[in-house]
Design goal:
Radius of gyration: 22 Å
Number of helices: 17
Helix content: over 70%
CATH superfamily: MFS general substrate transporter like domains
Largest sheet: none
CATH topology: Growth Hormone, Chain: A
Number of strands: 0
Distance between the termini: 30 Å
CATH class: Mainly Alpha
CATH architecture: Up-down Bundle
Order of helices and strands: HHHHHHHHHHHHHHHHH
């Protein structure tokens, strides 16, 4: 297969080498259905956090095993996202979405019925793989079946759902664990996915259009193995190393990660140069919009995940909030995040790329308000109401960030590579989420013994504020008008 030629702007032509069939336009029901699938994978990434104490008691799980319940899902999810997108390009995104939703329902049932801790770990790994099969098809389907303002609105809705799912995961998990429906306790946090997955499957059969590359690319076994190995070598020790006391295996894996990544890059460049079929075409990363969008994603997702981890620990262990109260505390952030993400297309039409600059500054202002609230209020008097103004400001900024991240990246991805591009965007997101917890989370836990939770929390907020200032400066390098 020869390489696809480029147009006058250096963008790979979708009709050369691999062409794309003209898919049916995405209907409102189809959009709601794929967004429901996206929300399932996002909610389940976070819903387990509030259930961990109950899982520990019920299954007699050790702290390291509990970490694997979380890390198993996260690593499988991140490692297989690009492959999931590639499979959708080759075999049809609708088909892969259906298989992903069905697998997610089955693996959720396996999690809910787990007789032991290691059964739950295995089921969570399988659940992460199902999510990786399902999620890339959402963005790829939106990319392939919408145009212009309809695409901008759909991507904005995707961003709002992704952000809101984080808050909903905490709230729903707290409600279900506290309700102890029919004595199921933590198990209902997984079992509730089953009827939702069935409903999504029925709607998808009726309303989700198919799209794919007309000339599927050959498998890239070497690239797939190296990509999975390099991500695993990075994410597994970052997720498990701290809880295990940074044993030798974790250090060895971290040292091997850049070597594996270099080998993967070499294999992919060689495959594209010789007319092969790389898993992640290097030419995709040569698109300026793709590179700039991915770089913007680093401070967004590293800061967000680290903040979420630190906030959860501070609320539940420092302020002694219940899981339900801690989840409900984040509701103001979820409301404003959803509202601004829906307004993102209008903000971009008015401000262009400067919308990212503005939302980074608003988000930073929210962190300042949170830090001042925590530092100036007696510790026992830090209530959800006192935290609400700062959280609402954070949500205002985050809603635009998520929508713009995907808009910038996907606007530069040729239609024939929509699956690979969507998988890449989501992989960067998930990898940064793991890095954020490992870096900002570890910094926080290291500071708590000497400085106390209040001061440690404020220092982490300051570190995230520095990242947002960097995001604002990076956004100034974007072209004023966005595609």
């Amino acid at each position: 297969m020869t390489l696809a030629p480029h147009d006058t702007h250096g963008r790979t032509s979708p009709t050369a080498g691999t062409s794309v069939s003209a898919p049916t336009a995405l209907t409102p029901l189809g959009l709601i259905t794929v967004l429901l699938g996206a929300s399932l994978s996002s909610i389940d990434f976070f819903i387990v956090n509030v259930a961990l104490p109950s899982i520990e008691r019920d299954l007699h799980a050790s702290p390291a095993t509990l970490e694997m319940v979380v890390a198993g899902y996260a690593v499988a999810y991140a490692v297989l996202l690009v492959l999931g997108g590639r499979l959708g390009d080759a075999y049809g995104r609708r088909k892969l979405f259906l298989w992903g939703v069905a697998a997610f329902g089955v693996t959720s049932l396996a999690c809910g019925l787990a007789p032991g801790a290691w059964w739950l770990v295995g089921a969570r790994v399988a659940q992460g793989a199902a999510s990786a099969l399902m999620l890339p098809q959402v963005l790829a389907t939106i990319h392939a079946t919408t145009r212009g303002e309809r695409r901008a609105r759909a991507v904005a809705m995707y961003g709002s759902v992704s952000g809101l799912a984080v808050v909903l995961g905490q709230v729903i998990g707290g409600v279900l664990v506290a309700a102890d429906v029919a004595g199921t306790g933590w198990r209902m946090a997984f079992l509730v996915n089953v009827p939702v997955a069935v409903a999504a499957l029925v709607c998808a059969v009726r309303a989700v259009p198919d799209s794919r590359a007309e000339q599927p690319r050959r498998s890239d076994v070497g690239g797939t193995v190296l990509f999975g190995a390099s991500l695993t070598a990075l994410l597994l020790p970052l997720s498990e190393g701290r809880a295990a006391g940074w044993p030798l295996w974790s250090v060895a894996l971290l040292a091997a990660a850049p070597l594996l990544a270099a080998a993967f890059a070499y294999v992919e460049r060689r495959a594209e140069r010789t007319g092969g079929s790389p898993l992640l075409p290097p030419s995709l990363l040569r698109e300026p919009g793709v590179r700039k969008g991915l770089v913007l994603g680093v401070p967004i997702f590293v800061g967000f995940s680290g903040w979420l981890f630190v906030t959860a620990v501070t609320l539940q262990q420092g302020l002694h909030y219940s899981a339900l109260k801690a989840g409900l505390t984040l509701v103001p952030m979820g409301i404003t995040q959803f509202a601004t993400s829906m307004l993102a297309p209008r903000l971009v039409a008015r401000l262009g790329s400067r919308a990212m600059t503005a939302c980074a500054l608003v988000h930073g202002a929210g962190l300042v308000v949170l830090a001042l609230t925590v530092l100036s209020t007696p510790w026992s008097g830090v209530s959800p109401l006192a935290l609400a103004p700062g959280l609402a400001l954070c949500g205002l900024g985050q809603g635009v960030q998520l929508a713009l991240y995907y808009r910038i990246v996907l606007a530069a991805v040729p239609a024939a590579r929509a699956g690979a591009g969507s998988g890449l965007a989501a992989t960067v997101q998930q990898a940064c989420l793991a890095v954020g917890v490992a870096t900002l989370g570890s910094l926080f836990l290291a500071l708590v013994p000497d400085l106390g939770m209040r001061n440690a929390f404020a220092i982490v907020l300051t570190a995230q504020l520095a990242g947002l200032i960097g995001l604002a400066l990076l956004s100034l390098r974007l072209p004023r008008r966005l595609g």
